[in-house]
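Case 681 in the screening queue. Each case pairs one protein sequence with one candidate compound; here the compound is adenosine-5'-diphosphate. For every case the pipeline is the same: read the inputs, emit a complex structure as tokens, and attach any notable structural observations.

Predict complex for case 681.
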Amino acid sequence: MVNAGPPLIVLEGIRRRYGGMGGQPEVEVLHGIDLTIHAGEFVAIVGQSGSGKSTLMHLLGCLDRASAGSYHFAGHDVAELDSDALAWLRREAFGFVFQGYHLIATESASENVQVPALYAGLPEAQRAERAAALLARLGLGDKLDLRPNQLSGGQQQRVSIARALMNGGRIILADEPTGALDSRSGEQVMGLLRELADAGHTIILITHDHQVAAQARRVVEIRDGSILSDSAGAVPMVAGDTTPDATGVNGVNRANGATNGGGTAGALPSLQLDPVQARHAAARTLWNELGESARTAWRGMRLNRVRTGLTLLGIVIGVVSVIVMLAIGEGARRQVLERMGAMGTAMLYMSSMPPQTGGPNGDLTEADLQAVRELPEMRYVLPVIGDPTTVRHGRVDKQVYVFASGEEMPAVHHWSVAQGRFYTEAEDRALAPLVVLGHKASRHFFPDVPSPLGRQLLIGASPFEVIGVMAERGADSGVQDYDDMVFIPYRAGRARVYQAQTQPDYVVMQAVSADKVYEAEAAIRKLLVARHGREDFGIGNAAARIQAEMQTRRSMSVMLGLIAAVSLVVGGIGVMNVMLMTVKERTREIGIRVATGARQRDILRQFMTEAVMVTLVGGAAGVACGLLVGAVLILAGVPVVFSISAMLGAFACAVATGLVFGYMPARTAARLDPVVALTGE
Ligand code: ADP
Ligand code: MG
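Case 681 output:
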């Protein structure tokens, strides 16, 4: 008896060759197979081990492509289908049952059964319900949450049958389903297949065991890649029209709206999505897909805690170093700016120099300074002589920087007197031997007295009277510690301490405002060149100094940033490494997912999600740790300035790193040949 209607599967002259590349000899495993199978048939393909049965089944199930010949499925030439259409076929038309069960080891029985529906886009609740119903029907109702390694072989095989039925399983491809089972479990499985056949499913059973094969309604014998015999016609065939739904499995199908009830086993004439599937596809939103990928990714991360932890560490270190280094760089920059800003950007510095045209050093005389002082652009002109000099009080004796300058010194340096007073211009003119102490110098020479005012200090060989103590200034970015100095009037200094000095070491000047600095500089230059007849002096300004300083700080920041970026990249390479390993470890799982209908982009998305998830978690942890490290640094007195943009940037970089370095392994996974993935370790 022959089925009415067009055949479901038509193979013509199918050949499959392996090798032939890289010098390996080409082997032909299938030598021109012609085979026609109608919907609702129960066919056994029997043959010895190595005869090419699995190869044939992989071709039938669209996991592999033939080297030659044609395969028409429901009237469509399979060679013309793209990978998505093939995935659709595997998902909606076929259900695979393998000798080695091929369950995903990390997922529970119920989750394994749900995998095909996942890729079909069935909503989660319905998925779980249907999986539970199928497993219950197959006698595993109490094993939903057990992992494959907690189940016996027979139970695992029943789980894989449930999985094959999840999306309807109109065509069940079973490759030695009883091969790994004891005889009793084997009989159970065969019983199930028979029931499914009775219910109208098309069953293609592969076995090396003639006794097992005999239970099918048609037996095709294959030897060395060729069909030896085919009992087609000899065995009565069931069209699946009147058979009662013996298994109840199809009751489940019907309950869920699938269309392959017992009476409509042949109802897959076209590749159109039927309304149920169309609904599933619509329900399959990006959000659901991402949620599902994230769930799987999270499980993967949990299962490989140590490895995940190490990868995370790489990312965290990268992010922390970016954040902290940038914060330190910015902190240092702001500090310099502040310190220099406190001194004022209207500051100018001048000292005599040998002229560039040659000749002796110039001399900045009192008269020169007076002339400069009278320029309208100038506010202060402060000649300074300063050198380490021996200062003594009683038996205490120390080399101290003695700073001889005008009475405007506190104003110029934005500094105040804490105790007593500063000397006046009149006292300066009168060569008065007065001294004002820096905070530290005061403590050094007068540790025990409440007030050093009125006491005498011997500076060089001359006695000076203490009239004041400066406020504490704190560490400066400059070379000298101002708190450790003593301050004397300029003229008295020249007369009593620095007798050899004919002119100031340098002159500190302040323009009337910061925007007049360059005008002031030009005016001074013009004036002094007129007076000296040549340019025998140098003028610098604070703005330029600040800029130079900022430049160095900035290059430091850039360098720190680079170092940090490098560590981030190293973290990214760590992600890539782990992902590549994961792909290797999970080729089998990828094969299973592909065999149950995952498209390339499903696999790609899953692995990308895992990579991004690692970096998301790592990035977030990195930002948190960065803040913590920063807080510790602040407590330790290191100036750090956090920037939100640096944090966001580092976080974004981490995630981008995950995307970039995760892509390659994910693509590798997506492009795995399903047969290689399934059979590979
Ligand atoms: P069966 O399932 O009947 O035991 P297979 O279809 O697995 O046989 O294999 C048939 C033949 O094809 C064997 O000789 C095997 O060595 C060969 N074969 C299978 N896969 C490959 C491959 N990827 N590369 C080379 N030879 C292969
Ligand atoms: Mg085999």
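Case 681 observations:
- The mean pLDDT is 83.
- The first helix runs from residue 53 to 60.
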